[in-house]
């Protein structure tokens, strides 16, 4: 009974443990409203981006391969790009299937 209780609702987090592709070239975004002219710079966010390595699929938020997201704010416009962070662990999973 306890196990069933713990699993209830997990389908709601399934979109959070799906792999995404890198966006290496900046893409324009649609801004709703206006961004003050004095706001210029980069917003960086780190989080999981890949959950499959070979035939292995990880289903916990902490197991995903790290992805860095960049939102560049300049003159009221925003562009976005992303890439996977490279690490020894990433190399082992992607190239050595460890």
TrEMBL record:
Q: Name one GO molecular function term.
A: carotenoid dioxygenase activity
- Family of the protein in this entry: Belongs to the carotenoid oxygenase family.
* Catalytic activity annotation: 13-cis-lycopene + O2 = 13-cis-10'-apo-lycopenal + (3E,5E)-6,10-dimethylundeca-3,5,9-trien-2-one; all-trans-zeaxanthin + O2 = (3R)-3-hydroxy-10'-apo-beta-carotenal + (3R)-hydroxy-beta-ionone; 5-cis-lycopene + O2 = 5-cis-10'-apo-lycopenal + (3E,5E)-6,10-dimethylundeca-3,5,9-trien-2-one; all-trans-10'-apo-beta-carotenal + O2 = beta-ionone + 4,9-dimethyldodeca-2,4,6,8,10-pentaenedial
Q: Which gene encodes it?
A: BCO2
The organism's lineage is: Eukaryota, Metazoa, Chordata, Craniata, Vertebrata
At the top of the EC hierarchy, this enzyme's class is oxidoreductase
Q: Which Pfam families match?
A: RPE65
Q: Which cofactor does it need?
A: Fe(2+)
Species the sequence originates in: Myripristis murdjan (pinecone soldierfish)
Listed name of the protein: Carotenoid-cleaving dioxygenase, mitochondrial
- Function description: Broad specificity mitochondrial dioxygenase that mediates the asymmetric oxidative cleavage of carotenoids. Cleaves carotenes (pure hydrocarbon carotenoids) such as all-trans-beta-carotene and lycopene as well as xanthophylls (oxygenated carotenoids) such as zeaxanthin, lutein and beta-cryptoxanthin at both the 9,10 and the 9',10' carbon-carbon double bond. Through its function in carotenoids metabolism regulates oxidative stress and the production of important signaling molecules.
Q: Where does the protein end up? A: Mitochondrion
**GO biological process, alphabetically ordered:** carotene catabolic process; retinal metabolic process
Keywords, A to Z, come to:
Dioxygenase, Iron, Lipid metabolism, Metal-binding, Mitochondrion, Oxidoreductase
Entry's EC annotation: 1.13.11.71
Gene Ontology annotations for the cellular component aspect, listed alphabetically: mitochondrion
């Amino acid at each position: 009974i306890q196990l069933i209780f713990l699993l209830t609702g997990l389908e709601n987090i399934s979109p959070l443990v799906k792999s995404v592709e890198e966006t290496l070239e900046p893409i324009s975004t649609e801004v709703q409203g206006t961004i003050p002219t004095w706001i210029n710079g980069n917003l960086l966010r780190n989080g999981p981006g890949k959950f499959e390595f070979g035939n292995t699929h990880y289903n916990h938020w902490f197991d995903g391969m790290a992805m860095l997201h960049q939102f560049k704010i300049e003159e009221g416009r925003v562009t976005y790009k992303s890439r996977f962070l490279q690490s020894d662990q990433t190399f082992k999973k992607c190239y050595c299937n460890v």
